Amino acid sequence: MSFKAAGFKHDAQFTRVRLSKGRNLKEHRSDFILCVYQARPDVDLTEWDIQQVRAVYKRDEWRLQFVCRTTIDPEPPGDEVAGVDLGICNFAAVSFGGESVLYPGGALKEDEYYLTKKRAETDDSASREAKRLDRKRTARRTHFLHTLSKAIVEGCVERDVGTLVVGDLGGIREDDENGEARNWGDHGNLDLHGWAFDRFATLLDYKAEAEGIDVELVSERDTSKSCSACGHMDDNQRVERGLYVCEECDTVANADVNGAENIRQKVLPSLATDGGDRDNGWLAQPGVRLFDRSEGSFAPREQVVNREP
Ligand SMILES: [Zn+2]
């Protein structure tokens, strides 16, 4: 059974669709079926232009198929390059070169902590309540990652970015054998972060692609040890209170922004090492966007008041 544009009404926020059974003109009323659906976690239908909905009966259940229109290979917004550093405190730091934005992961971690605790309190780990909490946790994670990837891609479109460079954490995990790995243990839940980063990279890739933005993964090697202003590398560089301080050119940078800028520069023709003559104030003063639970979106820090998860 197919429903064309006039025959359905889609509500992405509540993941439901109203299928019209047609009008009864005599009685001046229309009849419809309200379907609440569950999409695969990596699919976000708010992004798509739905042309048609089909209801298919298969193996004792009804399945909905959404037929969407998409543009193949859209023109990129511009030639600019942005870099993304993924981390623990700041889930993502983005450098646009001359401007930087931080996306703290606090809301995600709070949800995770709260729901894990609640789940531990349930008597039976196979119970209905435990399953409900699991579903809720997955939904919260998924929503956070969708919203974050969308916010970053929108930021790229606004700033004419055609290439988005992402630091590949896979490289870091492989470093384990060389004893160079970051000490994840001190920072929290490796399971969450391994899961979240991989999922996030996938979401970012397909949302960027839809805007014509090319996503490149580069190794994160040395991106936290090098000064993004002068290129000086310091193996003993210590990050204190989230700041990177260069002993060579005295640049002070937010450590995650410094990492993001180094990642960005990996695909640029080498131009960075001009001795720190440029105005580098933006490295130390990133904009901060927090996840606003009540709105379900990221907003400048001043506008967000988050209550208990
Ligand atoms: Zn420097």
Could you explain how this protein is built, in words?
The chain is α+β, with helices and mostly antiparallel strands and 309 residues long. It has two domains: 68 residues, no CATH class; 224 residues, YqgF/RNase H-like domain (Nucleotidyltransferase, domain 5), CATH 3.30.420. It is built from six helices and 15 strands. The strands form four sheets. A seven-stranded mixed beta sheet has the order 11-10-7-8-9-14-15, with helices on both faces. A three-stranded antiparallel beta sheet has the order 1-5-6, with no helix packed on it. It has a three-stranded antiparallel beta sheet with strand order 2-3-4, with no helix packed on it. α2 packs across α4. It binds zinc ion. Zinc ion binds next to loops. The site of zinc ion has 9 residues, from loops.
Task: Write a concise synopsis of the structure shown.
The protein is of the alpha+beta class and 309 residues long. It is 29% helix and 29% strand.
Describe the SSE topology.
Blueprint: E1 2-4, E2 8-11, E3 16-24, E4 29-36, E5 49-58, E6 61-69, E7 80-86, E8 90-95, E9 100-104, H1 106-121, H2 128-158, E10 161-168, H3 169-174, H4 190-210, E11 214-219, E12 243-245, E13 252-254, H5 255-265, H6 281-284, E14 287-292, E15 297-300
Parallel strand pairs: 7-10, 9-14, 10-11
Antiparallel strand pairs: 1-5, 2-3, 3-4, 5-6, 7-8, 8-9, 12-13, 14-15
Helix pairs in contact: 1-2, 2-4
Bound molecules: zinc ion.
Zinc ion binds next to loops.
